[in-house]
Amino acid sequence: MTFTAIYGFQLLEKLSSFIVPILFLLTTYLGVKSFYAFDGDMQRVVAGSFSMTDGEAVTAIVGGFVVSAVLMSDFTRYARKDTDAAIAAIFPFLLLSSVAYIAAAIAAIVLQQADILVILLAMGLGVGALGLVFLSTWITNVVNLYSCSLSLASVVRGRKHWQLTIVAGVFATVAAMLNILENYTSFLFGLSIIFAPIGGIFIADFYLLRAMKSYPLESLESARP
């Protein structure tokens, strides 16, 4: 994944263009099949014993979204027009993500299971679905690593981009070995607490302090330490 983030971004784009539509169809199929597994008994939605409160659920959902919202400037830095950036924000995060969340929620309720791999196998989607999950995870992690290296480049001076990417990849690998998924909800809570205020700063700076004026490159260069 680190190697892909350094040298293979064009390959990643082609891979994403092929995999994302398949993932969307797969997720839609999962949601529809899970919905019909209710057999009309929608009471199963509320029959389970869940300890998470509404506030905790909202915080977890925000934690999953807010990082991408804060990093949208990285994702859209080469967009030709403002409308391109808007489409890149609205289409995947509002539409596609909503479909994924709803489908995953229904499947988790039906099977009383939170592990996506177990859900896919239980729904009869087979090993091919696991391969798609692996590839989509690869894409997501490479994009995250790319954003992380850009953030490091704005703080650390005198280092090449590929060096910062390797450092970020090593730390990410160590973090993965710590099995964060065992405390995934707490991890999402942490993201919401940390990144939501950063997004608030961006909004206040752009709309209130700068009155929606663009950020010229010269001012960004002068602001660097």
Short description:
The protein is an all-alpha fold and 225 residues long.
Explain the overall architecture.
With 225 residues, the protein is mainly alpha-helical. Helices cover 78% and strands 0% of the residues. It contains eleven helices and no strands. Helix 2 (9-36) packs across helix 6, helix 2 (9-36) crosses helix 8 and helix 7 (116-122) packs antiparallel against helix 8 (126-155). It starts with a helix and ends with a helix. Mean pLDDT is 78; it is low at 221-225.
Secondary-structure element order, N to C: HHHHHHHHHHH
β-sheet strand percentage:
under 5%
- The poorly predicted ranges are 221-225
Biggest sheet architecture: none
Per DSSP, the total helix count is 11
What is the number of beta strands? 0
Helical residue percent? over 70%
Distance between the termini: 31 Å
Quote the average pLDDT. Answer: 78
Global morphology: globular
Return Rg in Å: 20 Å
Structural class: mainly alpha
Which labels suit this protein?
single chain; 225 residues; mainly alpha; 11 helices; 0% strand; globular
